[in-house]
Fold this sequence. Notes:
single chain; about 180 residues; mainly alpha; two-stranded antiparallel ribbon; two-stranded antiparallel sheet; about 65% helix
Amino acid sequence: MLSELRRRKFTYLFQCFDLDRDGVLERGDYETFGQRLGAAFDLAATSAKYLTIHAETMALWDFVRTIADHDGDDRVSVEEFVAAYARLTDDDEAFQRLLMGYASFIISTGDRTGKGSLDAEEYAAILSSYGIDDGEARAAFAELDVVDGLLSTAAMERAFAEFFRSDDPAAPGNRMMGRL
């Protein structure tokens, strides 16, 4: 049974991706997300990194649509999204393969210097793509397992695990995307 805390986190994540605020997820929300990520890092639409970001965000949409859109209308409601993420995050193998891979994608997307980690500015730039303001993003960054001002892939994976799987309201990963 899905806890109220996890339901709230999945609903919040849905809202972060519902960039046009119409109450459903559609391909356009993920296209906008990819465009915002590219803009956050001043990437030209023809650059290799932008094209990779676009491909990854479209693959994420295809994945979400595949696991959640049970009525085949190419739209995902909050109820479909929450139910799909509950199933996904309860499956150890799927969780490790898919969501933890997304943690690595976030690090590689935001890492401007090739150091293999994110600083507060890079993290805030990523969260801005979801519509999360700079102050809230920096506060979220400070809650995570930051060492020497950097968030590593391993720390991002821990945050993902806490956000998606923990029922502990005090788990730092719950703030990964800002205040719930």
